[in-house]
């Protein structure tokens, strides 16, 4: 309703009021003490407003002990939680999350005025230390739910928690609690949920203690400092349905006793130091939905018993040291939606039984030693497949997959294999395709002009293959048809393309004109893998957001002049046309590429003067015009353009002027403008990439000592700006 204002004190006259709910408005001010006059009140909901100030002690002392539900969450209350809250003996639900409360949580009761039934504490983002142990021992014996997540609690868990024998849920997620899990927690025979993720707990996971919690169904211990091995007593927690212990330092092997957890639905032990083999007993977890063992040191083969987990939806064994073939029994997991085995040492062929996985959405087998041909079914075996990643294996033969009509494929990465032959024309049926990476293979074909009209294609990487011929398309003659309407990354470098570059392409690249920050739509549990090759060093990254644009046609046999129409791509960040046979002058329209950060036109046959319009490119951090036939004076701007060194211009004997030692005749009577400090990165000798990660490091003014021509450049910052979240 978005009502505003304060609560009038006259509300205390509503003596027959039983329930007062004003949630989701814009009320502000203090909590009126006159509410204590409402002796019949059972439910009070002031959540999602803008109340502020301290919680009044007298209100909690005098309010009716018949109050059963109190919601004060999502406000701006500050101060401490008054101990007088203990007078509310009939309180079943207390929610005070997302405020600015501080101090200690009162866990002791004052002199009783009644008998409590159920108390649910939901107190978030407060800044206390956990109540001293002696108060916890007197705590709330009838408490059933205790929610303390997303605060700044510190110190150890009080042993007195063991006195809360009726406790069903204890959630202290996302705090700074230290120490070990106390043995007294084993007294909580009614405990069903224990959520202690994102704290600073240490020691070994006390499975023998936790197994005494005979009703425990969910155990969440991720992102702590637990160490040691997984004790075999974990097999005694037979009611357990969810076990998360990601991001710790757990060592040793997975105990075979884990196969006794017959009710387990989710098992996640990612980002630890587990070693040894995956126990075959894991195949007895018939109720399992999710199995995540990635980023450990597990070795040996994938047990074929995994094929018995008929309810499995997610199987992630990536980033381990697993070897041997992919078991054919994996084809029995017909309900599987996510299969990730990347970054292991798996060998053999991709089993044909994988074509039985008709519900698969993500298939990620990259970075293994898989051989043989790609199964023909991979283009049509699953109507929901959106990600197919087979990069960096030893797959050979032609791409014989037949892609079905109305498929959902968004990401196809076959980079770094030994694939040959032409591209299958059925790729044009992938109307949702956003990323196509077939680089670093042996594919021999003409340019696939038939994929130009894919409406969602944003990344096209064909580099380092055997593509050849003239890049022309009959469709470009039709002005009503845009080629690659959303393309932002176009890499066809290191091939055998020839002929003049078609002027019509630049007029069609609508996504490279006046583009604003866009992000690739992606699944919330999969990010497109990327590798950047920068100065000969590969950098592995976890995801790609297509926010910038790239054109790389280097190392081909293009000839003729560079079309002036390229100047309309004013959102272009990176352009590499080096190592071709382009002639003529550098187009003055390059001065319109206002977002350009890296430009390489080296090793061509370009002539004439360097156009002064290039000095307008204030974001340009890397320039290579070397090994051409350029002549005349290098333009001087006093800005970013003046920060480039000799190697940007070397191999052009007719060039003169700063920074070259060869002076122009008109400069005999005047010194060139001194350069400014700028980017300290060395000039890239021919840009290479295995994905786009763009940004810039602009040069900034700094004085240079007289006669000193040493320049220091700082590293480009665009890589950091391009990625968010690197899950790493």
What would the keywords be for this entry?
single chain, 728 residues, mainly beta, Leucine-rich repeat, LRR (right-handed beta-alpha superhelix), 3 domains, 7-stranded parallel sheet, 50 strands, 4% helix, disordered C terminus
Task: Explain how this protein is built.
By secondary structure, the chain is mostly beta strands. It has three domains: 1-176, Ribonuclease Inhibitor (Leucine-rich repeat, LRR (right-handed beta-alpha superhelix), Alpha-Beta Horseshoe), CATH 3.80.10; 204-372, Ribonuclease Inhibitor (Leucine-rich repeat, LRR (right-handed beta-alpha superhelix), Alpha-Beta Horseshoe); 537-722, Alpha-Beta Horseshoe (Leucine-rich repeat, LRR (right-handed beta-alpha superhelix)), CATH 3.80.10. It is built from five helices and 50 strands. The strands form seven sheets. The protein has a 24-stranded parallel β-sheet, with no helix packed on it. Strands 37-39-43-45-47-49-50 form a seven-stranded parallel β-sheet, with no helix packed on it. A five-stranded parallel β-sheet has the order 1-3-5-7-9, with no helix packed on it. The chain is globular and about 95 Å long.
């Amino acid at each position: 309703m978005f009502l505003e204002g304060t609560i009038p004190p006259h509300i205390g006259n509503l003596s027959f009021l039983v329930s007062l709910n004003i949630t989701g408005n814009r009320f502000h001010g203090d909590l009126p003490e006159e509410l204590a006059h409402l002796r019949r009140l059972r439910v009070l909901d002031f959540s999602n407003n803008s109340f502020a100030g301290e919680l009044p002690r007298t209100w909690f002392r005098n309010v009716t002990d018949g109050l059963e539900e109190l919601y004060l969450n999502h406000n701006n209350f500050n101060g401490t939680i008054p101990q007088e809250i203990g007078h509310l003996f009939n309180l079943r639900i207390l929610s005070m999350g997302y405020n600015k409360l501080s101090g200690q949580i009162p866990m002791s009761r004052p002199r009783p005025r009644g008998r409590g039934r159920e108390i649910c504490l939901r107190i978030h983002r407060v800044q206390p230390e956990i109540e001293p142990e002696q108060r916890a021992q007197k705590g709330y014996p009838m408490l059933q739910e205790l929610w303390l997540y997303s605060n700044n609690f510190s110190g150890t868990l009080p042993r007195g928690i063991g006195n809360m024998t009726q406790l069903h849920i204890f959630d202290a997620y996302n705090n700074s609690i230290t120490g070990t899990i106390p043995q007294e927690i084993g007294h909580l025979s009614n405990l069903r949920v224990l959520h202690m993720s994102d704290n600073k707990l240490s020691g070994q996971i006390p499975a023998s203690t936790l197994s005494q919690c005979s009703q425990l169904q969910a155990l969440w211990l991720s992102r702590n400092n637990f160490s040691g091995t997984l004790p075999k007593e974990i097999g005694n927690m037979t009611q357990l349905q969810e076990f998360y212990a990601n991001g710790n330092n757990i060592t040793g092997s997975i105990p075979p006793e884990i196969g006794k957890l017959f009710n387990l639905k989710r098992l996640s032990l990612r980002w630890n130091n587990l070693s040894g083999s995956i126990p075959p007993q894991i195949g007895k977890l018939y109720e399992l939905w999710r199995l995540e063992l990635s980023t450990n040191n597990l070795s040996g083969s994938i047990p074929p018993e995994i094929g018995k987990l008929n309810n499995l939806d997610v199987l992630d064994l990536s980033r381990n040291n697993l070897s041997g073939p992919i078991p054919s029994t994996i084809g029995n997991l017909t309900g599987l939606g996510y299969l990730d085995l990347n970054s292991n040492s798996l060998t053999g062929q991709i089993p044909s039984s994988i074509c039985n996985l008709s519900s698969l959405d993500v298939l990620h087998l990259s970075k293994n030693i898989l051989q043989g041909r790609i199964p023909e079914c991979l283009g049509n075996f699953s109507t929901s497949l959106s990600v197919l990643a087979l990069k960096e294996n030893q797959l050979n033969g032609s791409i014989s997959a037949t892609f079905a009509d109305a498929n959902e494929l968004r990401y196809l990465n076959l980079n770094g294999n030994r694939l040959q032959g032409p591209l299958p024309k059925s790729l044009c049926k992938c109307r949702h395709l956003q990323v196509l990476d077939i680089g670093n293979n042996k594919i021999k074909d003409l340019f696939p002009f038939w994929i130009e009209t894919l409406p969602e294609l944003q990344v096209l990487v064909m580099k380092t293959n055997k593509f050849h011929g003239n890049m022309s398309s009959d469709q470009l003659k039709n002005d009503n048809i845009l080629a690659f309407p959303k393309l932002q990354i176009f890499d066809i470098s290191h091939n055998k393309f020839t002929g003049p570059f078609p002027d019509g392409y630049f007029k069609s690249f609508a996504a490279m004109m006046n583009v604003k920050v866009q992000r690739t739509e992606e699944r919330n549990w999969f990010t497109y893998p990327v590798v950047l090759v920068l100065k000969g060093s590969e950098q592995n990254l976890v995801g790609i957001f297509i926010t910038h644009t790239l054109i790389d046609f280097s190392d081909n046999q293009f000839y003729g002049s560079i079309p002036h129409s390229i100047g309309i791509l004013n959102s272009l960040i990176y352009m590499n046309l080096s190592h071709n046979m382009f002639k003529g002058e550098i187009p003055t329209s390059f001065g319109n590429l206002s977002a350009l950060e890296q430009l390489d036109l080296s090793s061509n046959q370009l002539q004439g003067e360097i156009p002064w319009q290039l000095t307008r490119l204030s974001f340009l951090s890397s320039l290579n015009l070397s090994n051409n036939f350029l002549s005349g004076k290098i333009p001087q701007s006093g800005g970013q353009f003046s920060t480039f060194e000799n190697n940007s211009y070397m191999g052009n004997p007719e060039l003169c002027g700063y920074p070259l030692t060869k002076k122009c005749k008109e400069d005999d009577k005047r010194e060139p403008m001194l350069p400014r400090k700028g980017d300290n990165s060395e000039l890239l000798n021919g840009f290479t990439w295995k994905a786009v990660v763009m940004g810039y490091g602009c040069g900034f003014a700094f004085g240079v000592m007289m006669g000193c021509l040493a320049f220091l450049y700082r590293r480009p910052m665009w890589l950091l700006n391009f990625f968010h979240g690197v899950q790493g």
